[in-house]
Specification:
Length: about 475
């Protein structure tokens, strides 16, 4: 991303309120959290805004609520109850969001309607018949390219796909296809990484149809009413995308829109990087700056799914590995470009190998040696170069995976340094102080740069290292 950015607004997708948080959602939210924490260090707290939250309207939410005995009169209670679980999951894992989105907020609904009115005023909306497949799970009108060889949605159960024939309002997406191609290929809309950008460009080349942006109220009542037609509800995806602007408005932060970065999984690349910018162009809003589209995290070689019974929740990770352990095992398996795969065995190995026996052990070695030496150490404080220069390039390229690998490489080099210099054999105090100071300085830099990833660990390490009389004995990651 451009180096001259002074403000940073980072978003995650808003997750369907009827679902429960699993490690896939946790992955996107944690990576956004790392970036938010990094940019707060670099640009100052007031120049960063980070949102995550819930997508509360539409068929799946409505049907799930009704199945649980709610009615259209009290469905808001259902959504509010669902929110408790998500907020708890993200609070428990130290996600530093500034605002938790809930699309039933009256200001969001009002803003969404105003936004739609702008599309209408720009002559981009017309009424027509939709006839085809709809996947309730994806909340998506399925095109041929969305279907697998059997003509089904590759992501959801066959019974989630229904044939529909209904009158809807359409948005002239096709009108914007060439403009989007140009904006994406010239990086005005920056899509990272390259393979996700190419995917969009290839699909744009294949031709773009107009899209439906409403559903009949008789079928989907739980949503925002289409302005000007009380028989229609705004299609949940159109409304959900608008949250990225309404969240700023609700918080008096509109000024941050210019530095907006969306993080998302590959499944919703088209919505974010074709439909969303087209809507923005039509409504006359400036575009976001970039979007970071990661791959999928699978479990034991399969898609995470309730029916396969392979769901791992962030809560389960915290119970086993602690907060920072949970963050680490997921971030260290980050599917930057391609999908990645985890199993409980692999997560255990990561935790024990990299944290307990890795960085945790190195920290224990250095601090014990410092204590045993009986020496006092003047350790310098972190300076801004760490954020603005030393580690800036991979962060700007959203390579949080690379930063994390480099931090751990530094820690293992430090471990080798300790073994090679064997401070316990050095009898000369001046020489010993020199070797240990160098090792403590390296460890301090590791502690500082770990903050966006493992905030609690970073704090614990710095508490020990920033005292002149360093004491050993702090265990960062107990072995499991
Ligand atoms: N409600 C829409 C998003 C609207 S945004 C304006 C939606 N919700 S979702 O609950 O299905 O969440 C999808 C997102 O969750 C993915 O894009 C990704 O960020 C995250 N993940 C869900 N499962 C995942 C994996 N298995 N792996 C990685 N991330 C995945 O779509």
């Amino acid at each position: 991303m451009n180096l001259d950015n002074k403000q940073f607004y980072i978003t995650t997708p808003i997750y369907y309120a009827n679902g429960s948080p699993h490690i896939g959602h946790f992955l996107t939210t944690t990576v956004a959290d790392v970036l938010a924490r990094y940019y707060r260090k670099r640009l100052g707290e007031e120049n960063v805004f980070f949102t995550t939250g819930l997508d509360c309207h539409g068929t799946t939410v409505e049907q799930s609520a009704i199945k649980q005995g709610y009615t259209l009169e009290n469905i808001q209670d259902y959504v509010d109850n669902r929110q408790v679980e998500w907020v708890e999951a993200f609070d428990k894992t130290n996600i530093s969001y500034n605002y938790f989105v809930n699309t039933t907020h009256p200001k969001h609904k009002e803003f969404a309607q105003d936004f739609i009115k702008k599309l209408v005023a720009n002559d981009d909306v017309y009424k027509a018949l939709y006839k085809g497949k709809y996947c309730n799970g994806c909340e998506k009108f399925l095109t041929l390219s969305d279907l697998n060889e059997e003509g089904l949605c590759p992501l959801h159960r066959p019974d989630q796909v229904v044939e529909i024939e209904e009158e809807n309002y359409y948005f002239k997406l096709s009108k914007y296809a060439n403009r989007l191609k140009e904006l994406i290929s010239t990086d005005v809309i920056e899509i990272v990484p390259e393979n996700k950008r190419n995917e969009i460009l290839a699909r744009l080349d294949g031709g773009v149809d107009d899209i439906s942006i409403t559903r009949p109220k008789s079928k989907v009542a739980w949503g925002v009413e289409f302005p000007g037609d009380s028989e229609q509800t705004v299609y949940v995806w159109t409304e959900a995308l608008i949250n990225y602007l309404s969240s700023l408005l609700i918080n008096d932060k509109e000024g941050l829109w210019g530095g907006a970065v969306h993080t998302l999984g590959k499944d919703i690349n088209w919505f974010h990087n074709v439909i969303w910018p087209a809507l923005l162009l039509s409504a006359g809003y400036p575009l976001y700056k970039a979007s970071f589209v990661h791959g999928f995290l699978n479990v034991s070689g399969q898609k995470i799914s309730k029916s396969l019974g392979n769901i791992i929740t962030p809560g389960e990770l915290v119970t086993k590995y602690g907060i920072d352990g949970a963050r680490y095992v997921i971030l260290s398996n980050f599917p930057y470009k391609d999908d990645s795969d985890v199993t409980w065995e692999l997560l255990d190995q990561k935790y024990n190998g990299d944290l307990a026996n890795g960085i945790g052990n190195t920290f224990a070695r250095v601090t014990k040696l410092a204590e045993n030496s009986g020496l006092e150490f003047e350790i310098s404080k972190a300076n801004k170069d760490i954020w603005e220069k030393d580690w800036a390039v991979p962060f700007q390229a959203f390579r949080v995976d690379v930063v994390l690998q480099n931090i751990f490489l530094k820690a293992s080099e430090l471990d080798k340094h300790i073994t090679e210099h064997a401070p316990w054999t050095i009898t000369d105090k001046t020489a010993l102080k020199e070797v240990l100071t160098c090792e403590i300085e390296t460890l301090r830099e590791i502690a500082v740069i770990l903050e966006p990833f493992l905030p609690n660990t970073s704090e614990k390490m710095l508490q020990v290292l920033e005292s002149t009389n360093i004491k050993g004995g702090t265990i960062l990651f107990p072995r499991i």
